[in-house]
Amino acid sequence: MTTYLVPLVLIGGLTSVGVYLLLERNLTRMLLGLLLISNAINLLILTVAGPSGNPPVRGRTSADEASTADPLAQGMILTAIVISMGIAAFILALAYRSYRLTTAEEVGNDPEDTRVSSMAAQEAAVLDEDRPPEPDLAIDTDLPDELDALPGRDGSR
Known about the structure:
Keywords: Cell membrane, Membrane, Transmembrane, Transmembrane helix. By secondary structure, the protein is an all-alpha fold. The protein contains four helices and no strands.
């Protein structure tokens, strides 16, 4: 199977730019990143589907192709396009509603999440202070105990 380099580079570029845009705090950039990643996945499905061929319709041929094209990849890509457009519409509605409420498109930290995470950090610090120090298991006394595998000096186990 021959793999062409241009689609693979394009898939990698679209994915990396999409991830970079998803990590931004701007809702429009997040949406663009999501759309770029969905397009990269569609291109990946098309590339993995194999070479083109005759249409998957009985009695139809194209040029001088010997094999039939795989219709599963085409159906998956059409489904993915519909799903990504639905998600894009939902995110656009969220961005519009957020802008109407706060007149800012930046996504800020949620005050409640910040409060809960600071409380968890304080509780962890208190638990660490109350915990007794763990015994050092590397220190070995010469007294025999049940875990010693070697007999003691006096020949007893």
